[in-house]
Amino acid sequence: MGLKDILVQIDTEGAGAASAHRQSFALSLAAAHDAHLTAVAFALEPTIPPMIMGEVPGALLESQRKRALDAANAAAAAFTAAADRAGVRSEVRVISCTESAAPPTLAVHGRTADLVIVGQSEPDDVLAIRDLMTEAVLFESGRPVLVVPYIGPDEARIRNVIVAWDGRREASRAANEALPLLVKADAVSVVVVGDSAPSARAGEPGADLALHLARHGINVSVKRIPDTGIDVADALLSHAADTEADLIVMGGYGHSRLREFVLGGATRGILASMTLPVLMAH
């Protein structure tokens, strides 16, 4: 199955370089796969602490709502113009809602896409709920999520890919969801950190996944990183830098606590320190 229907979250008020990088990356990826690209722009309701809600003039609240909607519509128009210039089929969904409703709403919209693109949180981020949106898509949409670092890139140049492999369900899901990207890559490396990856057959950890990918015509190799005590996230990011990788594919892990998902250590570490795009699936 190809990559034909992509969803991207775009920023509105205070959008800066990170949002521009993410939008350009999404347009580049959609163009490379002849895919339709849908943008979601949130016009967020003003957040007023309950204890002072009654003291805030209604006219001020309405003014803030209008400003948020105007910003979302402006972002939508700019996105449409950029998509037209790139020759990418597109649409924009402007959604007015509260901050708390935005993450699950994005997940719902993502359920009928092949891939959802979001951004990494950055220092002094204009969107306080960015991490919550990434987690909602990862754990609630049922679709893979591709996180673009706030430093870029602008172009979806995906030639050298690392597939992090630990033999678990989430890693298998991520590798198979990434197949439309992997088949277009020049080289794919199945990377195993330590020796804990279970295998359906005896042999080198990761070899079974490599065989599966090779049967899709992918140029694949296996790299085993010894367990030296460094955490998995740092080991993967260090290897990605050393090999000039363009993308990491990995399982997104978490555990349920009071009906909310809490990110696992490796997932959290990657999202915090990533310097290249990362595709995750749960």
TrEMBL record:
Name this protein carries in UniProt: Universal stress protein family protein
UspA domain residues: 158-281
Highest taxon in the source lineage: Bacteria
Highest classification ranks of the organism: Bacteria, Pseudomonadati, Pseudomonadota, Alphaproteobacteria, Hyphomicrobiales
Listed SUPFAM superfamilies: Adenine nucleotide alpha hydrolases-like
Family, similarity comment: Belongs to the universal stress protein A family.
